[in-house]
């Protein structure tokens, strides 16, 4: 059924002259005082009180969207998605919908002036990183939003051009196409239409194939946004869930598994919110899109059999990570690049030489201050057993354990991730097998390899050999210059590897690349009589290098 648009009288709750709100800093008259300049001195004062320490800005997404009473889509989906990814989400509500798993029974737009007032309240005070838009019911609301963003600029704008719900109900005036095309798209960093929306934006062209989606993405890019994602959830006859990402030059085909489920209500809202959340955390665009897509796929997979409501399209569970036993995600925090600080790579040959077990080696390196461990080479059976034992040690110390090359071993022992080289399984495939929450590292010697690792969805790169080493024969040494070139080009955090120990770690960290997060060590830890004291020595050199770097900023 098509929903009816109701228009509210312009001041439904407060008379225009007496809008008094209880704000965080006491009661104030909204229009007169909710302005940015009043806020800055307050936060500076608080910062000074703390000596500049101890305060943390939480990444913050503002969603400007409609409320879905069924809570599968709209503002409710946005808040849950951001929350699940560890990002704060404020909400400006543009319309209230009466909606369930059957469809949309009614739409009640919020008056434009009150949308403007909500925008001012949030944007003037709360240091929003990213704005994400969903249902914008009228051209007037689009205009109000564009004006607000000009007054209070944010880091990026994600536009999900919601027009018709999956149930076929209108969520936006048809005339709004012009609002999107003429005003909002030019300000957008990314626009994420589904097939129907992309078609409507382009005057009704038919979109049935991946090639059609690519040319639609290019045409929408001409309307002004920096990036376009044409979503293929509704692509006919497709056994994969294929989305097309266009970056202004190239079309990337993003493949995911199509989950067989009725619970797909809100996938579009969730995807756009996850993109916004990842951007708020600092991810580059393609990485944000890939993480968002993986999140939707995992949430659908987890929720495929849940039953909420009796209609044809149910909601899914955004908070699956709090519950999933298999993922262990409630226990494991997401990858923290600072874990690369002192990266210990075990070596079975060295352990044999010094007659110590792998578990003793791992324990000693953690005791000496290693922040992440990579376990290398053994026979499969031994490898799995050793990895399981090491997992127990690492988990009890909160230190991630990665497995070198062997995705099967990592899966068998539920390790925190895998590190692959250029001739191993491609990171893209590893990501598919391990899912979005595991850590993936890739060895890279060149800027092109670093770029590919990022596109493939890796979390970090290992760069080297920086200096000659006996652990890898015929390994090309790239030197400090090579390391610097890769760091500068890499969008991912970097750990340097190859012949690094307490004697030269300082010279490595001194190259001064902000994304060089630490060093990996093999012989300088494990080919020594006392691993603990060698790790401590290396750690103190690294600490010294990082405090000097901070002082020189
Ligand atoms: N059944 C499914 N399995 C896996 N991913 C899906 C499924 N349906 C949709 N998606 C993904 O969800 C995201 C939202 O797409 P889509 O459903 O087309 O958007 P909308 O909700 O706006 O119609 C896309 O990344 C799409 O590939
Ligand atoms: C308030 C609101 N906003 C957006 C959507 C689109 O969601 P979907 O495309 O998944 O039906 C919706 N149904 N309701
Ligand atoms: Mg949608």
Automatic annotation (TrEMBL):
<protein>
    <submittedName>
        <fullName>Probable thiamine biosynthetic bifunctional enzyme, chloroplastic isoform X2</fullName>
    </submittedName>
</protein>
<feature type="domain" description="Thiamine phosphate synthase/TenI">
    <location>
        <begin position="342"/>
        <end position="524"/>
    </location>
</feature>
<dbReference type="GO" id="GO:0009228">
    <property type="term" value="P:thiamine biosynthetic process"/>
</dbReference>
<keyword id="KW-0547">Nucleotide-binding</keyword>
<keyword id="KW-0511">Multifunctional enzyme</keyword>
<dbReference type="InterPro" id="IPR004399">
    <property type="entry name" value="HMP/HMP-P_kinase_dom"/>
</dbReference>
<dbReference type="GO" id="GO:0008972">
    <property type="term" value="F:phosphomethylpyrimidine kinase activity"/>
</dbReference>
<dbReference type="GO" id="GO:0004789">
    <property type="term" value="F:thiamine-phosphate diphosphorylase activity"/>
</dbReference>
<dbReference type="GO" id="GO:0005524">
    <property type="term" value="F:ATP binding"/>
</dbReference>
<dbReference type="GO" id="GO:0046872">
    <property type="term" value="F:metal ion binding"/>
</dbReference>
<dbReference type="GO" id="GO:0009507">
    <property type="term" value="C:chloroplast"/>
</dbReference>
<dbReference type="InterPro" id="IPR013749">
    <property type="entry name" value="PM/HMP-P_kinase-1"/>
</dbReference>
<comment type="pathway">
    <text>Cofactor biosynthesis; thiamine diphosphate biosynthesis; thiamine phosphate from 4-amino-2-methyl-5-diphosphomethylpyrimidine and 4-methyl-5-(2-phosphoethyl)-thiazole: step 1/1.</text>
</comment>
<feature type="domain" description="Pyridoxamine kinase/Phosphomethylpyrimidine kinase">
    <location>
        <begin position="68"/>
        <end position="312"/>
    </location>
</feature>
<dbReference type="InterPro" id="IPR036206">
    <property type="entry name" value="ThiamineP_synth_sf"/>
</dbReference>
<keyword id="KW-0479">Metal-binding</keyword>
<dbReference type="InterPro" id="IPR034291">
    <property type="entry name" value="TMP_synthase"/>
</dbReference>
<comment type="function">
    <text>Essential for thiamine biosynthesis. Bifunctional enzyme that catalyzes the phosphorylation of hydroxymethylpyrimidine phosphate (HMP-P) to HMP-PP and condenses 4-methyl-5-(beta-hydroxyethyl)thiazole monophosphate (THZ-P) and 2-methyl-4-amino-5-hydroxymethyl pyrimidine pyrophosphate (HMP-PP) to form thiamine monophosphate (TMP).</text>
</comment>
<keyword id="KW-0808">Transferase</keyword>
<dbReference type="Pfam" id="PF08543">
    <property type="entry name" value="Phos_pyr_kin"/>
</dbReference>
<dbReference type="InterPro" id="IPR013785">
    <property type="entry name" value="Aldolase_TIM"/>
</dbReference>
<dbReference type="InterPro" id="IPR022998">
    <property type="entry name" value="ThiamineP_synth_TenI"/>
</dbReference>
<comment type="pathway">
    <text>Cofactor biosynthesis; thiamine diphosphate biosynthesis; 4-amino-2-methyl-5-diphosphomethylpyrimidine from 5-amino-1-(5-phospho-D-ribosyl)imidazole: step 2/3.</text>
</comment>
<keyword id="KW-0150">Chloroplast</keyword>
<dbReference type="InterPro" id="IPR029056">
    <property type="entry name" value="Ribokinase-like"/>
</dbReference>
<keyword id="KW-0934">Plastid</keyword>
<comment type="similarity">
    <text>Belongs to the thiamine-phosphate synthase family.</text>
</comment>
<dbReference type="GO" id="GO:0009229">
    <property type="term" value="P:thiamine diphosphate biosynthetic process"/>
</dbReference>
<keyword id="KW-0784">Thiamine biosynthesis</keyword>
<keyword id="KW-0809">Transit peptide</keyword>
<dbReference type="Pfam" id="PF02581">
    <property type="entry name" value="TMP-TENI"/>
</dbReference>
<keyword id="KW-0418">Kinase</keyword>
<keyword id="KW-0460">Magnesium</keyword>
<dbReference type="GO" id="GO:0008902">
    <property type="term" value="F:hydroxymethylpyrimidine kinase activity"/>
</dbReference>
<keyword id="KW-0067">ATP-binding</keyword>
């Amino acid at each position: 059924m098509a929903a009816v648009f109701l228009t509210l009288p312009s001041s439904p709750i407060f008379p225009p002259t007496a809008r008094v709100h209880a704000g965080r800093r006491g009661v104030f008259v909204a229009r007169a005082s909710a302005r940015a300049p009043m806020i800055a001195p307050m936060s500076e004062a608080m910062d000074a009180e703390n000596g500049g320490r101890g305060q943390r800005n939480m990444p913050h997404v503002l969603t400007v969207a409609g409320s879905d009473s069924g809570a599968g889509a709209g503002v409710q989906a946005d808040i849950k998605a951001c929350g699940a990814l560890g990002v704060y989400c404020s909400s400006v509500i543009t319309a209230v919908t009466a909606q369930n798993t059957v469809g949309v029974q009614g739409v009640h737009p919020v008056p434009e002036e009150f949308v403007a007032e909500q925008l001012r309240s949030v944007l003037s005070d709360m240091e929003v990183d990213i704005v994400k838009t969903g249902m914008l019911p009228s051209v007037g609301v689009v205009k109000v939003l564009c004006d607000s963003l000009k007054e209070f600029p944010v880091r990026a704008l994600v536009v999900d051009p919601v027009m018709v719900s999956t149930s076929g109900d209108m969520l936006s005036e048809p005339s709004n196409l012009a609002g999107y095309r003429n005003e909002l798209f030019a300000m957008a960093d990314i626009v994420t239409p589904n097939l129907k929306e992309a078609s409507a934006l382009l005057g009704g062209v038919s979109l049935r194939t991946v090639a059609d989606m690519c040319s639609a993405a290019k045409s929408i890019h001409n309307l002004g946004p920096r990036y376009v994602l044409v979503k293929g959830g509704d692509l006919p006859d497709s056994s994969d869930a294929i989305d097309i990402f266009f970056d202004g030059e190239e079309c990337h085909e993003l493949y995911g598994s199509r989950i067989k489920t009725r619970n797909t209500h809100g996938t579009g809202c969730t995807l756009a919110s996850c993109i916004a959340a990842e951007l708020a955390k600092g991810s580059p665009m393609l990485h944000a899109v890939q993480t968002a897509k993986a999140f939707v796929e995992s949430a659908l997979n987890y929720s495929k059999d849940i039953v909420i409501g009796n209609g044809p399209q149910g909601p899914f569970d955004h908070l699956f990570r709090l519950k999933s036993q298999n993922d262990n995600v409630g226990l494991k925090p997401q990858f923290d690049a600072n874990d690369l600080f002192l990266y210990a790579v075990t070596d079975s040959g060295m352990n044999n030489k010094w007659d110590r077990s792998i578990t003793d080696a791992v324990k000693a390196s953690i005791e000496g201050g290693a922040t992440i461990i990579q376990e290398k080479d053994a026979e499969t059976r031994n490898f799995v057993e050793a990895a399981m034992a090491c997992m127990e040690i690492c988990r009890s110390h909160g230190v991630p354990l990665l497995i070198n090359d062997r995705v099967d071993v990592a899966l068998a022992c539920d390790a925190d991730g895998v590190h692959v080289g250029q001739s191993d399984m491609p990171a893209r495939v590893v990501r598919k097998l391990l899912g979005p929450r595991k850590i993936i590292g890739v060895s890279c010697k060149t800027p092109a390899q670093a770029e590919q690792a990022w596109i493939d969805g890796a979390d970090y790169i290992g760069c080297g050999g920086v200096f000659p080493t006996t652990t890898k024969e015929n390994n090309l040494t790239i030197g400090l210059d090579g390391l610097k070139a890769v760091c500068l080009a890499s969008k991912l955090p970097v750990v340097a590897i190859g012949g690094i120990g307490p004697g030269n770690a300082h010279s490595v960290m001194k190259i001064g690349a902000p994304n060089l997060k630490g060093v990996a060590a093999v012989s300088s830890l494990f080919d020594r009589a006392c691993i603990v004291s060698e790790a401590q020595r290396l750690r103190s050199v690294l600490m010294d290098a990082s405090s000097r770097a901070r002082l020189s900023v």
